[in-house]
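Figure 3 (text version): structure tokens given as input.
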């Protein structure tokens, strides 16, 4: 080959537009895993987000509900997917920050097997009691629990989920003893709470809103740093003298490790644009949900801090999932 031809070939290689991955992505629909059944908080949030995010990306986003093991089955499937940006998921806090402390048989390592795209939302946890419980305030509830140790029962959406861990944190902080009754989801838990099979519960605002507003359940506190506009009269745990009981649930977008950085950046940008739009903020706020939308690095750092925070609660309580 002549020197001229070698030079022309080299110029051709250098002029090639490099990895077209970011420019071409997406050129087909994106698969969006929701690791819970349709109709729950994660599903509601996902449909609000993807409606707008799809229009930003210019391609359809297809939601696939893959429930089981408190979100672990769906997130594990994403961790094992091809890292090309076409399979992503919305993950709850429990699947990224809690179960890693609670289980020895995790099907994936959140920090090793996943890329963090952005935190989608923060969902305050509300502490409620049913009509049979005489306590009208958090202080009265704690006094009642101390007077009757091991008598009051609380529902959760499953062992290791935020509703469970929020109540464990309250028990630890207030030095009270309650009886945990885990359910397979929010709907049966709330039904039994209303039917007085259990007396109290922490849960995501959207789960309880329909029962709080007509007065079927009494809201005693919100486990968040600030009050929420949809329930302005409900004080925070910090206002009530228990700032340690901070239990905002949260959801974030994740992708398989190895997904190219330009694709993660594109997904991050599309999600943030959607979450910061007035339309999406309003739709989420109507459910008592706070839109977030931050950088991949910020979400990664936040997840690491949550793993450490809830690890301390797990160690103090001795809870394990076997």
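Below: residues designed for each position.
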């Amino acid at each position: 080959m002549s020197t001229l031809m070698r030079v022309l070939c080299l110029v051709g290689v250098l002029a090639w537009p490099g990895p077209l991955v970011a420019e071409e992505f997406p050129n087909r629909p994106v698969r969006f895993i929701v690791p819970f059944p349709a109709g729950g908080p994660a599903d509601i949030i996902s449909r609000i987000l993807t409606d707008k995010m799809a229009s930003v990306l210019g391609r359809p986003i297809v939601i696939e509900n893959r429930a089981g093991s408190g979100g672990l089955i769906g997130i594990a499937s994403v961790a094992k997917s091809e890292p090309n940006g076409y399979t992503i998921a919305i993950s709850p806090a429990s699947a990224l920050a809690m179960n890693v402390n609670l289980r020895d048989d995790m099907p994936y390592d959140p920090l090793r097997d996943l890329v963090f795209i952005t935190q989608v939302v923060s969902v305050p946890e509300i502490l409620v009691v049913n009509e049979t419980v005489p306590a009208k305030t958090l202080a009265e509830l704690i006094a009642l629990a101390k007077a009757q140790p091991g008598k009051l029962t609380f529902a959760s959406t499953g062992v290791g989920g935020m509703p469970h861990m929020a109540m464990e944190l309250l028990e630890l902080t207030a030095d009270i003893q309650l009886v945990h009754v885990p359910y397979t989801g929010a709907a049966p838990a709330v039904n039994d709470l209303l039917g007085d099979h259990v007396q109290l519960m922490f849960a995501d605002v959207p789960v309880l809103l329909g029962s709080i507003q007509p007065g079927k359940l009494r809201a005693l506190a919100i486990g968040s740093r600030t009050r929420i506009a949809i329930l302005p009269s409900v004080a925070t745990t910090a206002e009530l003298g228990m700032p340690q009981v901070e239990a905002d649930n949260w959801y974030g977008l994740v992708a398989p490790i190895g997904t190219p950085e330009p694709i993660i950046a594109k997904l991050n940008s599309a999600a943030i644009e959607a979450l910061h739009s007035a339309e999406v903020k309003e739709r989420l706020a109507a459910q008592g949900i706070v839109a977030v939308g931050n950088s991949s690095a910020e979400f990664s750092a936040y997840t690491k801090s949550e793993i450490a925070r809830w690890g301390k609660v797990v160690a103090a309580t001795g809870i394990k999932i076997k």
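Residues 296-317 form the longest helix (22 residues).
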